[in-house]
Every structure is written in C-alpha cells, then in structure tokens.
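WARN no homologs supplied; continuing
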Amino acid sequence: MKKAKNNPGPCPPEVMSHARQLGERELHIQAIIQSLRDALVVFDAEGIVHFCSHGCAEMFGGQEQDLLNRSIATLFADRWFGPSWQTEWLGNRRTGQEMPAHTVLKGVAKRCDGREFPAEISISQWQRLGTTFYTAIIRDITELKILEDRDLRAYVNRIAISALLEIGIEPLSLHRKLEVALEIVLTVPWLAMQYKGSIFLVTEDDHLEMVAQRNLHAHLLQACRRIPYGFCLCGKAAQSKQIVFSAALDERHDITYDGIHDHGHYCIPILLQERLMGVLNLYVDYGHVYDPEEEAFLTTIANTLAGVIDRGLAEDRVQHMANHDALTGLPNRMLFHALLEQELRRAARYQQILAVGFFDLDHFKAVNDTFGHEAGDLLLKAVAARTRQQLRDSDILARLGGDEFTLILPIIGDRDNAIAVGKKIVQALSEPFIIQGQSCQIGASVGLSLFPDHGQSADILLQMADRAMYAVKKGGRNGVAVYMESGS
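OK structure emitted
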C-alpha cells in the first residue's frame, strides 16, 4: 500500500486574511507615497537611487525610470552638493548607531532640464537584508522662499524708511542729512544698485543742483553740478515728474566722458504732493532688468526724502534767519563773531596773517532822509552786493546793523594786500547808485586791523578796526587806513 504524499491542504483562513491585509496595506502605502507632493527618494550608501516617487518625477521633470540607478548627486546643484556630501548628509547614520533626530537641510536642487530651485531635504536610515538604505524627502520651497524673501524685504524696507525719518529730525544741516540719506539708500541689501549715486535739489531758477553724492567720477561732479530741467536723465525726470529708467547708456544720456563704463539708472523725482523738491539718481549695472518692486520701493524712499528735504529747508531758513541779516542776507553780528573766532584759530594754527575790517557809509543818512527808508533799504542791499563783488570767495562780509559792515580777510598775506582790498571797496562804493530811478552818491570809510600784530582776540581786533575807521572819518572820510598807521 502506497504512502500518501504530504498535502498541506488549503491555506487557513486566518493566514489568507493576514496576507490580504498586508497586500492592502502595501497598496495603501504605495498610494500615499505616490500622492505625496514632496519627492521621496531611496538611495544606498553610495548614493545610487533605488526608488523615486511619482512626486519626485514631477518635481524634477522626468520619468520615474529615468531617475533610477542614477547618483543622488544629479538631483542637486554642483555648487551645493559637494564631494563631502556623505559626511555632511549621513554623518553618524552610517556607523549603525542610534538614529539622531532628523535634521532638515536647506539646499539647491536641480531639475532634469538644469533649472535650479531651493529645497529642503530630510534624510532617514533603514536596513534591509543587512544593507543600509536612506530615504530622502525633498520639498520644493520656492514659494516659501519667495514669501520669506518678501517678508525680509519688507522688514529691511521698514528699517530703511525709519532710518530716513530719524535723519529728518536729527540736528544736522540739510546737506549732511542728504549725505546720510543717500548712504542709507545705497546700502539697502536687496536693491541691485551700484554703490554710487547722487541727490539733486531744485533751485529757484528751475535747475537741479547736486547737494550729495557718492563715488561719482570727477567729470560728473563738474558736469552735473548744476543741470537744467530736461537735460540728461535727471533733468528729464525733473521735467516729467516721472521715474526715468535706463538699462544702458543711450541717447538720453547727454553727459558722458572718455572711459565711461556702460551702466543704467533709476532717476526718481522727489515730490512733495505735486511740488518737485529734487531728484534721486541711482546707478545699476548694464543690462539691469526693470523691477516694479524696486520702483515701488524707490518711490516710497523719494516720498520720504521729500519730507526730510521740506523739514530741512524749513530748519535752514530758521537757522539762516537767526544768523543772517534779514535785509541783505549777509551774516549778522552773532554769526560774524563765530566766524571770526573760527578764522582766528585757523590763522594761529598755520601762522597766517588775517585782516579784520570795519566800515560804514558816508552820507547814508542824507539819502535816507531825502528819498525815504525804502530807498535806504534798497541802497543797503546794493552796497552789500557791490562790496561782495570786490572780495574773494573766502572773504567774509557781514552787516552789524544800520550802515555798519564788517570784513574778515583770511590769509591776506600782508598789510599792503589788506589796504588794496579796502581801496577796492572804497572805489566801488564811490560810484553812483541808481535807486528807484534816482542817482545816489555815497562813500565809505574803511578801518583795518591785522592779526597777530594788533591783537589776538576777536573783540580787540574789532576795536582796533573801529578806531582806524574813525581815524579815516576825522581825516575827511571816503578812505581806508590800518590801525597803527592811523593812530588811536
């Protein structure tokens, strides 16, 4: 009788149920993996890809089978994925020690067509049949990066605007405020600007005058010192009251020079409501692409600068009124004394001769009495203007009050030079003035004192010049004398 063969018989129901559950679970896991928007990649210790999800193929722009058996390095930018990636990425995961908490790496991934994008990578380790594998989850953070950059820009923008507003209330001259303001604008990190530019203010005769600059060529400092509306890009921005953008030197650039490098510009009108206050001139690299976000921010900067300028001009007017004669615009007594002290310190330091002058007008009272105070005021303004024409730019003319004027003649050289200046003033003021259609004839008595011969202090030098002036008057008026020569 033959033995019956071993027959396992039908599979027990519980085994079939367990196998069915495992199959369903695997299908469920596969469905989850394939539905992930993040890329899931399995690779070995040598970096060879063994599996990639459908989301990975979509993210990198290829077919799943095309990504298999490739090096993980091909999924990342060369400049980021270096030769030490195994140490940096896997670290002690390769030692078999207990897995540390996941570290999220931020890097630059590369699509199959070579386009790069920012990514986050999270890596975990696992074993199968004694072989170590790694699972990398790669997330495209392009949109997140855009939002982060936008938030960072907004934060930087707020800092820049706040800094400009703070500059506006600092006790500085308007010129200095605009120098600092330009520095703030040029150092905003996200703006693609060269570290050079300028700020122009509007003049009374509709020109632009450069009042602040950074790193401009010497030729531009001269040629752009004062420009009319409509001339070159800055003048065109002033004329149109619209931003002028240029990506290169073009026909709108009226000012060039030999050796100039090709470049572009943003020229932004500085407007207080509709009133033109000036122009902000910034440089960009050749071929720079116009950016609406840059324009919007620079418009905000210009609007803020308009407030700084308006406040600065008002403060300068107040300061000018406090330190200058309202009628002639010359320095008043207080400013004259401050300037004289300053010039005396400089003369002492460099052992230079300085002259102090004191003069008043001969026969001025007769003009005032004959033609009235309005004519007298016009005559004083004309005297100030004519006297100023006889002086160097470094010389200082001031009005103390009434028909009394004072002079500072720094680095005058010697007594003869000082006397020569005094004679020029006397000669100029002896010529007739036409005031309100009437010819007026006056003269001037000029007294001079010299530093250091006649004194070391401002008060003493003024007293000596005053005595010299009265000596001229006693001698017949309309002349000039130096203190020691005239007697006391």
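The domain at 333-486 is CATH 3.30.70.270 (Alpha-Beta Plaits).
OK
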